């Protein structure tokens, strides 16, 4: 009888596919690196989300190439890409599409025809997603969760793979509409785009003030990416990995017996089961990206902060004490580490 924490090793064909996946990741980062200097951690987070079939929210101040990062990844993957600039006057139909009356010039017959909106793409960049009202933000909810859009009572499937990569500016709050927790929960990761190092910034200035605009070569086709997503799903997750992910999620809930003191004092609502699922999927994707046949605890810890920080809702005491969700998640991870 096998140990309860053991997981069956993948077949040989999957081991060969893992080598191809690790090589594809290397080539993808190499291509994107022709335009983007540094930001390796953020790019790894985007690739992890893509391989896991999840969406990502990129948070950073203006001018850090968030938009260029997303469009470059889409170009290197040879996927259909669309960008939606979110503004206060954006309407749901501007995202999903709308029906128009069309007349047949031969018969004079009039009928409705659905015109697809920009959400009908493989990678959708929702630029400054918090600048549009909740009604329009909600237009993305069905697409992000069910990968389909319903307009005028008719449901239209979205082509797989489908990802929403949204950007958000953390410093400008005037004229913005904070994303509701229900929509935040649909993002697998919240990735923070930080200022570049001095050396990276000098390299950025040198590259972008010249006359050369590097072209990118596609690394993966749509079908190849779908195959790699299925491969990631087949990566074994030992019992201890699942237990670790569930423990971390439960420790963010103030009513749970495993919650540390900081969570009980400063958190109103913690992460739900979707967080546990995403931590395990992210751990599998990270293992696959390294060419490893099985996820481990370090993989869970590597994705935990990006999965949890936007799912922890702090209370007034936390705001008064200057306690941010990110710091509380760090305390949760430290407490979980002591329980090994």
Task: From the structure above, extract its key features.
alpha/beta, Helicase, Ruva Protein, domain 3, 2 domains, Rossmann fold, 340 residues, five-stranded parallel sheet, 11 strands, 15 helices, 16% strand, single chain
Bin the strand percentage.
15-25%
Order of helices and strands: HHEHEHEEEHHEEEHEHHHHEHHEHH
As a percent range, the share of helical residues equals 40-55%
CATH level 4 superfamily of the largest domain: P-loop containing nucleotide triphosphate hydrolases
CA radius of gyration: 22 Å
**Numbering strands along the chain, what is their spatial order in the largest sheet?**
2-5-8-1-9
Shape verdict? globular
Distance between the termini: 24 Å
When the domains are counted, the total is: 2
Estimate the mean pLDDT confidence.
Answer: 85
Which structural class do the helices and strands define? alpha/beta
CATH class of the largest domain: Alpha Beta
Poorly predicted residue ranges:
1-5
Give me the CATH fold name of the largest domain: Rossmann fold
Output the number of helix runs: 15
Number of separate strands: 11
Q: Biggest sheet: strands, sense, closure?
A: 5 strands, parallel
Structural overview:
It is a single chain. The chain contains 15 helices and eleven strands. By secondary structure, the chain is of the alpha/beta class. The chain folds into two domains: 10-231, 3-Layer(aba) Sandwich (Rossmann fold); 235-340, Magnesium chelatase subunit I, C-Terminal domain (Helicase, Ruva Protein, domain 3). The strands form four sheets. A five-stranded parallel sheet has the order 2-5-8-1-9. The chain has a two-stranded antiparallel ribbon with strand order 3-4. Helix 1 packs across helix 3 and helix 10 (239-251) packs across helix 12. The chain is globular. It starts with 11 loop residues before the first helix and ends with a helix. Residues 1-5 have low confidence and may be disordered.
């Amino acid at each position: 009888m096998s140990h309860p924490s053991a997981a069956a090793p993948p077949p040989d064909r999957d081991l060969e596919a893992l080598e191809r996946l690790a090589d594809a990741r290397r080539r993808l980062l190499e291509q994107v690196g022709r335009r983007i200097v540094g930001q390796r951690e953020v790019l790894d987070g985007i690739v992890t989300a893509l391989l896991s079939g999840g969406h990502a929210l990129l948070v950073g101040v203006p001018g850090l190439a968030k938009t260029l990062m997303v469009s470059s990844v889409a170009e290197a993957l040879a996927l259909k890409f669309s960008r939606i600039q979110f503004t206060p006057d954006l309407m749901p139909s501007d995202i999903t599409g709308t029906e128009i009356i069309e007349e047949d010039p031969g018969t004079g017959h009039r009928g409705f025809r659905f015109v697809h909106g920009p959400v009908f793409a493989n990678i959708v960049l929702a630029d400054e997603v918090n600048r549009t009202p909740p009604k329009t933000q909600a237009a993305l909810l069905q697409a992000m969760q069910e990968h389909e859009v319903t307009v005028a009572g008719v449901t239209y499937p979205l082509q797989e793979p489908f990802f929403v990569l949204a950007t958000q500016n953390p410093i400008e709050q005037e004229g913005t509409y904070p994303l509701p927790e229900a929509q935040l929960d649909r993002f697998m990761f919240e990735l923070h785009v930080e200022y570049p190092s001095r050396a990276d910034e000098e390299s950025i200035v040198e590259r972008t003030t010249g006359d050369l605009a590097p072209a990118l070569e596609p690394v993966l086709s749509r079908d190849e990416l779908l195959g790699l997503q299925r491969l990631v799903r087949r990566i074994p997750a030992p019992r201890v990995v699942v237990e670790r992910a569930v423990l971390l999620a439960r420790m963010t809930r103030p009513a749970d017996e495993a919650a540390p003191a900081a969570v009980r004092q400063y958190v109103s609502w913690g992460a739900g089961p979707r967080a546990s699922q995403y931590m395990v999927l992210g751990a599998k994707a990270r293992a696959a990206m390294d060419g490893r046949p099985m996820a481990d605890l370090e993989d869970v810890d590597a994705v935990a902060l990006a999965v949890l920080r936007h799912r922890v809702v702090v209370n007034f005491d936390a705001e008064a004490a200057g306690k941010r969700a990110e710091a509380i998640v760090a305390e949760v991870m430290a407490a979980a580490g002591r329980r090994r």
